[in-house]
């Protein structure tokens, strides 16, 4: 079981529970995570959803090996089908669940890890947290849920994509990507306190407030941009396959999973 789920006092807590692999996302973890989000969204007793992670790091991103052998032949059609469902559709569904959500991020949040915290309405980060998307080294322009410009602004987004360097929690707070930065040993307590405060608000009012903000972003082009950039992302995979570059992807994945 890669996901833990608990409900107490109107707050559903969803926990990534693969700390030995820095919470890298294999297929089972993502499917379990989506099921937990759906469960929380459907439960009338849940007013707020908290996403957190066990261990030192929030998430090292996608585990491309998926916990099993890599197929002898990988096609762009296979990649597109998997990523459109588990990466793009899941993230968009979590974003649009009509209940406030809070991500608690510690340690490293790399590439695919952004697809887990960015769909949340609020992000609280520990002082040691960092956010990065180094996939340009693979010939890909960014992760599947391409929220970089919306989360960081265009120039900061280009900087972290062009260089692959991590954004510190302090930087992320300044751009508005993170709501609050707290000491590591206070992360869960601070998130819980915020969730409890929100849970006291009328559920319908919360739903309407979230819908208003999300629809404003969609009118500005968020939804269309995410969808169109996903197809651009797939051309990167096509290029990697055409030049035999899949081993580069696997090397990056191995590097991420060796994070201490």
TrEMBL record:
Top-level division of the source organism's lineage: Bacteria
This protein's UniProt keywords: Lyase
Entry's EC annotation: 4.2.1.17
Pfam families named among the record's database cross-references: ECH_1
Any one GO MF annotation of this record: enoyl-CoA hydratase activity
InterPro entries: ClpP/crotonase-like_dom_sf (IPR029045), Enoyl-CoA_hydra/iso (IPR001753)
Family: Belongs to the enoyl-CoA hydratase/isomerase family.
Stated name of the protein: Enoyl-CoA hydratase
């Amino acid at each position: 079981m890669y996901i833990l789920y608990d409900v107490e006092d109107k707050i559903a807590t969803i926990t990534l529970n693969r700390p030995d692999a820095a919470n890298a996302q294999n297929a089972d973890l993502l499917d379990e995570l989506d099921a937990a989000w759906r469960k929380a969204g459907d439960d009338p007793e849940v007013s707020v959803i908290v996403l957190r992670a066990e261990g030192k790091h929030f998430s090292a991103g996608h585990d491309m090996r998926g916990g099993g052998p890599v197929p002898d032949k990988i096609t762009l059609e296979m990649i597109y089908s998997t990523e459109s469902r588990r990466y793009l559709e899941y993230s968009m569904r979590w974003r649009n669940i009509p209940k406030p959500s809070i991500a608690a991020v510690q340690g490293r949040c790399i590439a695919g890890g952004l697809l887990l915290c960015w769909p949340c309405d609020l992000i609280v980060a520990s002082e040691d947290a960092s956010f990065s998307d180094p996939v340009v080294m693979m010939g890909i322009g960014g992760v599947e849920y391409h929220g970089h410009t919306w989360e960081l602004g265009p120039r900061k987004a280009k900087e972290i994509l062009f260089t692959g360097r991590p954004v510190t929690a302090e930087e992320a707070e300044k751009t508005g990507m993170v709501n609050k930065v707290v000491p590591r040993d206070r992360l869960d307590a601070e998130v819980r306190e915020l969730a409890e405060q929100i849970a006291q608000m009328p559920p319908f009012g919360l739903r309407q407030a979230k819908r208003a903000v999300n629809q404003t972003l969609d009118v500005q082009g968020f939804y269309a941009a995410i969808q169109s950039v996903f197809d651009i992302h797939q051309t990167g995979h096509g290029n990697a396959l055409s030049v035999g570059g899949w081993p580069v992807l696997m090397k990056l994945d191995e590097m991420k999973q060796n994070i201490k």
